[in-house]
Structures are given as structure tokens and as C-alpha cells.
Amino acid sequence: MLKTSLPSSRPLPPGRRYWRTQVLAWGAYAVFNLVLFKAFAGKAAGTWAWVLSLVIAAALLAASHLLRQLMQRRDWLGRPPLALLGRLLLANAALAVGCEVVIGLLAWLLLPRQSAAQGPQGWLPYLGYILNMNVMLWLWSAAYVGWHYLQRSQRVEVEKWRLTAAVREAELNTLRAQLNPHFLFNGLNNIRGLVSEDPARAREALAHLAELLRYVMQHSATPLLPLGQEMEIVADYLALEALQLEDRLQYSLDVDPAARAVPLPPLTVQLLVENAIKHGVAVRPAGGFVAVTAQLDAEGWLCLTVRSPGRFSPDAATGRSGLGLRGLRERLAQAVGPAAEFELSNDPAAPDAVRATLRLPDLRAQAPGPATVLSTSLSPVAS
Question: Transmembrane residues, as ranges (predicted)?
């Protein structure tokens, strides 16, 4: 059961990076004000210039931190842009007035009377100071909101890739869960027919089935395995089928040593061989010959072919394609992507033969995809 948590009304505690940025930014503004005081007041800008610059910077630091508290406590960043702008308009104006009042009080308390007497007279200069404070708070708000929107977009992108990977993994697990019972049922059904007829052959069949079970249990969750390892289990499967079909099944395995290291989804070749036996050999009283060949083409791609007796009809195959080939196509699409090429057709070199052809790129030479990127996630930073 999914649980959704409402946003907390308590603001997140600020982290070190937040305070470091705040101190550096407003410290730089204090230096900027000090330079202005020195430029316009000249030698008259003594201790009061230092004190006033620090007071202004401290007031803006406190005001910006209070603004941050309001944004997080009231969840302003989760509101539409116009609602956020309206709240910032009122908050920045009120904080600018408050900053000027605080600065005036501190200047009256800390600065000498003669320095205070030389300050601005009337309300117009103070309105200018308030406008300046407002502008600085708007600049801070723009930087803070922009940084949060950037962090949010990055988190959304990472979550999107995580969700995509989770969906793909769930689909693969579903296909494996469907495939394994289907495969095991066929193997056990074959052995059941041998138990009463030939117990010795039944024991031999159980040994081959044990190897198949070990392979499924160890590698069913592995996305890719070398072709050489896959062919070992195909040999066990063919031996198991030959014990039941006897002379009706003849087969050959011809694999180029250079192609044995090419990775492909587990049980891919076994599915093709099982399909060839089920629809090409087992349905014929005389049986037939299954030939498996694998080699690399001029582009370095794996070209795997399974030939079996029979005739392929696309219309008839639509109704009886079954779980095997449908699952194979889906697993290839999930593990390899659109680059995988699979074709089931009549063999042009033989009048009564069906050819299943699989062409895959050598994934060892490809760069890591989005799933690899997901292994590194954004670390949460208090701000």
C-alpha cells in the first residue's frame, strides 16, 4: 500500500552550504557598500562606514533567512508562479521596511551622535534606502527560487529514470516468472513419459533437467550472459529432448569461437530451439533435424540461426505464437532495445525448412545507458 506524506510545515534546517553562501554573498555586499562610502565620503568615511556596512549586511542576511523560513513553512515554492510572485511582492516590501527600521535604530545606537546628525534628512532618502533593500531582496529571492527549481527538475529527471528502470525490471521479472514454469512443465512432462518406459533414461533426463534448473535459478535474474554459457544449457536441453524423441530428433551445434563471448538474454537460444522442436520435430512422425549456428558478421554483430523442418505461415503463426516467441521479442526489446533483429521465415535454401534468425549487436562495445546513470543519485542537501 502506497503512502503519501503531506509536506511538513516545519522548515528544513539550513545546511553548511546555505550559511556559507549567505555569509559570502552578504559579506561581499558589505564590502561593496564600504567602497561606495569611501568613494563618496572620502576621508570622512571613518568607523561609521565600517559599522554601517556591517549593519546593512547583517540586516539583509537576517531578512533573507526569514524569507527562506516563510517560503518553506508556508510551502510557497509549491504554489503556482503568480501566487508565489504575489507573496514575494508583499514579503519583500515588508522586510525592506523592517530592515530600514532596524538599520536606523542600530545606527542611532552604535554610531556617534555627530555621525548620525550628518545622516540623511527627511523621508525621501529613506524611501530610496527601502527601495534598495527591496531590490536586493528580490535578487536574493530570484537566486534562491531559481536554485530550488533547478534542484527540483534534476530530482524529477532522476525519479523518471528510476521509475523507467523499475518498470522495465518488473516487466522482465514478469516474463521470467511466466517463462520458467512453462519451461519446467515441458521438461517434467518429458521425464514423466520416460519413467515407466526406461528408468535409466529417466535418471539421465533428470540429470540434464537438474543442470537446466541450476542454470535458471542462478541466471534468471541476470540481464545478459555470454553465448558460450547459453550454448552449454542448450546442449543439455537438446540431450533431454533427444532422450524422449530418440531417433526422431537429430541436431547439430555450430558456434564460432569468436561469437561465444557475445552477451545475450538468458534462455534466448533455448527458446528458439524449444520452438523448433515443438512445432517442427515433435509434430512429425519421422521427426527432423535442428541446426543451430552462430557467428559474427562483418560488422561484429552476432548472427544466430536455428533451422528446423516445417513450413512457416504468418497467418497461422499469429494464432499459435504462444508465450515463447512473444516473450522472446519482449525480452530482446527490454534488454537490447530496437537494435535487436529477429525474423521467423521459411528457409530459402531448403524447400521444407523454417529458419529463425536473430541478429544482435555486441553489447560489450556499447557505452552504458540510462540504467547505469541511475546508480548515482542526487544527494539531498539542506538549503
Answer: 21-41, 47-67, 88-111, 123-145
User: Dihedrals φ, ψ of 221, to 5°?
Assistant: -95, 0
All domains of the chain, ordered by start, with CATH?
Answer: 16-158 (no CATH), 198-363 (3.30.565.10)
Three cell numbers written together for 179: 517463462
pLDDT tens sequence across 20-42: 989 999 999 888 888 887 777 66
- Tell whether pTM > 0.70: no
Query: How far is 330 from 233, CA to CA, in rounded Å?
Result: 21
Rounded-to-integer distance, Cα 226 and Cα 255, Å: 12
Taking each helix axis as running N to C, give the angle between helix 16-41 and helix 47-73, from 0 to 180 degrees, rounded to the nearest 10.
150
Strand positions, DSSP E, the chain: 225-226, 249-255, 263-264, 288-296, 302-309, 341-346, 353-360
